[in-house]
Design brief:
The structure is a single chain. This protein is mainly α and about 90 residues long. It has a domain of about 60 residues. Helices cover about 85% and strands about 0% of the residues. It contains 3 helices and no strands. Helix 2 runs antiparallel to helix 3. The longest helix has about 35 residues. The chain is elongated and about 65 Å long.
C-alpha cells in the first residue's frame, strides 16, 4: 500500500525540478551573452550578428517559460542591440 504524501513534499519536489531546469536555461543564456560580448570586443560584426540572434532567441524562449520577466528580457535585448548598432556604425 502506498504511503500518503503531503502536498508540501510534492511542492518541494516540483520546485526543485524547476530550479534545476531554470538554472540550466540561465546558464545557457549567460554563455550566449558572453559569446556576443566577446565578438563585439573583437569587432567582428558577422559573429556578433549571429550571436545576437541566438541570444535573442534564447531570451525570448526564457521569457515565454517564465524564467525571466518580459521587461527584463526586453531591456537585455535593447542593450545588446544598441551595442551591435554602435559596432556597425563604427565600421
Amino acid at each position: 500500500m502506498a504511503t500518503k504524501q503531503s502536498s508540501a513534499e510534492k511542492r518541494h519536489r516540483q520546485s526543485e525540478e524547476r530550479r534545476i531546469r531554470n538554472k540550466s536555461a540561465k546558464s545557457a543564456i549567460k554563455t550566449s551573452v558572453k559569446k556576443f560580448t566577446t565578438s563585439i570586443q573583437d569587432k567582428d560584426a558577422g559573429a556578433a550578428e549571429t550571436n545576437l540572434r541566438e541570444t535573442i532567441k534564447k531570451l525570448d524562449t526564457a521569457a515565454g517559460k517564465g524564467i525571466f520577466h518580459k521587461n527584463t528580457v526586453a531591456r537585455k535585448k535593447s542593450r545588446m542591440q544598441k551595442l551591435f548598432n554602435t559596432l556597425k556604425t563604427a565600421q
